[in-house]
Design brief:
Chain lengths: ~250, ~575
Amino acid sequence: MSEHEQKQESTMSRRRFIRNSGLVAGGLVGGGILGGLIGANMNKDDAANDNGGHGNGHDQVAFQQSPLYFTNPEIFGILQAAVERIYPKDENGPGANDLDVPFFIDRQLAGSWGNNTREYMQGPFFPGSNFQGYQSPLKRHEVFDVGLAALQTYSNDKHKKPFAELEGEQQDEILTAFEEDKVKLRGVTSRTFFNILRAAAIEGVYADPAYAGNKNMEGWKMKDFPGHQMSYINQIESKKFVEIKPNSLHSYTS
Amino acid sequence: MAKTLPKTDAVVVGVGWAGGIIAAELGKQGIKVVGLERGKERGVKDFYVVHDELRYGIRYELMQDLSKETITFRNQGKERALPMRQLGSFLLGEGLGGSGVHWNGHTYRFLPYDFEIKSQTVKKYGEAKIKGLQVQDWGITYDELEPYFYEFEKAAGIGGEEGELGPKRANPFPNPPMKETPITARFKEAAKSLGMKPYHMPSGNMSQAYENQYGAKLAPCQYCAFCERFGCEYGAKADPTVAVIPFAKETGNVDIRNFANVTEIIHDGKKATGVRYVDVQTKEEFIQPAEMVILTSYVMNNTRLLLASKLGRPYNPDTGTGVIGKNYCYQILPGSAGFFDEEQFNTFMGAGALGATVDDYNGDNFDHSDLDFIHGGSISINQSGYRPIQYNMVPTDTPKWGSKFKENSIKYFTRALSIGTQGASMPVQHNYMDLDPSYKDAYGLPLLRLTYDFTEQDKNLYNYIGKISDSIMKEMGPAKINDRQQLEHYDIVPYQTTHNTGGVIMGAEPETSAVNNYMQMWEAENVFVIGASAFPHNGGYNPTGTVGALAYRAAEGIIKYSKEGGLLA
């Protein structure tokens, strides 16, 4: 299989996963444990057919494509659908899902950032003015729990369909309502949720692939950003634009 | 029950630039120093795998752990202050070397005008010009400080060229300027064609291999573009853990203790007898007795420790009397973003302090007779290196997400340039710091409360200098320039600058200042408080050069005090 074909194959299988998450979300397959198993099976299948892009060998399994925070495929499917609207696949290159952004966010929520470990979380809590910053007692992983569930509820109420099954434009309308703070959430504003979601999506596109997103450094390639380079001392004066093959933190150990 | 340790000559609270310089200079004289640093030990060896934007640039690994300690903030005294729960507007440092590890290295000297701002402004424009502003002279002139600036520039290996309108130098810079790039050259050509006088930015990134007065060997900068918010794996950045702390340790007179968080200055109202600190790992409490107590723990902590320890007269914003917490200032930062549709630049290459600057609209270098503000700012282009998460510069009409955002943020990553201003910030009576009545840190101490908002002076300066900045950008030839947002209320969320100043200000009179021009407390002669906390206002440049000069000035005073005692000024 050529590299190009491999890439297509891998993209296709991921699409199947996303579609199936949608099916799960839609209740066609049934929820609960059955849905979870199907999601997990799809993921395994997907990984087995995929060189993962996180290493340069053959037959590598993309172990990083494994949820560590999300345990419910329906919810994970909402996240996948939402980040794809924020950073869509188009003629400029891969979108959030092809770049494994949902897996990036999943890992972030499971770790220090998702648990606000380096932030001041003592009460009392008050809403605060527009200039006083984040004042929610919720940790970020809880903000995602609340926010993603609210996307689903909003979608079901308005369109009688789960969020992941809507047309792109309908999803955009809902995300816009959240962004504009038109949706009442418990413990956090919808705008705050949206802003964190947007920031996390962009981080997943461009953070070092070590964090499970930015697959194959494709995010960097779109921006002509060469990642980690030791030195530009010989190019810094160049009057021409210099194209440099990107390099990741993995090179420290390879 | 706190354990009392053997007495030392001097205890230094916080070991960054100021603390490192004091430790090195006192240790050299045979004065025994205990340096208490709340964060961990670190140095070049710890930055082997540093080119990680998410970890350092976005998640702020080198910055203060706010779960332990933060500030509270409100715009106005009638509001309830709330904790700064996440880092945003400014990035406080933590760990050995303090913010000197993660800074960019822009190293200017404040203008002669800054040190005599009140008397010079009144003399030239009349008393009405400073109405509503709480500006005051610094109790020292530029000429008096000049040798101390040079001492710091030697320690930090600053490379640069003298600007025509900047302060006059007795000696050339220790190092030549950094390299010229198409971006810096483009800015200079544009500024020159408008009649301004651009020069290369004075840099704490080494333009060549360098050895300083302490025998520290710094390597040449590699222009790797991971500088601000990062530590330097080459030892090519002026960083106290490279430039001054190793020497301090070599003197054999300096004992630096990490994980030591000072909670109180112990005193009898006239003199300090030592400090209380907690080992943040074991939670054990200690009392470190000392002949002299030297605070070098940044603007926020210097102010908070004095207030929490009830040393010095707290500032009262209703009457403008008292001094501790007075004259908190920030910076005013108008800038211009230009979008070059047809050209691609190597924006991802750079160094923290690679850039070019003009001083034509800084200080009183231009006539303010018909203007509704005083001072101004240095206007610069800075090629510190774009990183892909943080830099998504797009034309104003671009949506914040979706396909169009993706297209523009990709396109302009290498096709957008920006000009920035370090605009001066003037003190007013109601911008200040005190202790928060309800929120506490991890050790039970009240948090510092910041009350701050932008003023008419700030907005007028912003609008005027912003237009100058636009004129340079326009001359650089972009396809379009973004409209600047109006300066309204100060917002603690978006990153702006970590150039906070004031709170323990210097001056010639005990009535209106907290420390004299040796950074010695008027009310407690064996306490010295060093840092940008001593600035009575914030000037139109990055502050570290001036902080360094004040640290050398203070070191001289402390050495003198250790021999003679008494008030030094």
